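Protocol step 4 of 6: structure prediction from sequence.
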Amino acid sequence: MRRGHDEKLRLCDALERIADALPGVDRMICLSTANSIVPLLRSIHQYEEAIIFPAYEEAVVGSEANLASTRRLRAEHVEDECFAGEVTETLLAIGHGEAVENPEAIGFMLRGLFENLRRHIAFEREHVLPMIGIAD
């Protein structure tokens, strides 16, 4: 789980560097980042939903609020993957030479994704992992 969080945080850092560099970004970095976003998130989300969330739900049996947390986290996974698809399309376009006509809007989009991911990780680290005996 820690490795998954570390990989997502590296992705967030890459997205932040791209957002900070707009409009003059390295097109190859855009392409490599774009190609990693969706597969990385899907892989980590599948692991969390198959292994981590069931363990968490078992640890908090009887606490309806905590079961609501995993429902929310699963919904965030869907939202993040949809958002990641949009970010991927944008970064691929830039990487293939499309002009960055509205750097503020693209930066806002990138920041929206990486801030959501960081917030999700923080919640898991503070609430989910301690309940299943994984110290961060």
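Step 5 (inspection) to follow. The chain has four helices and no strands.
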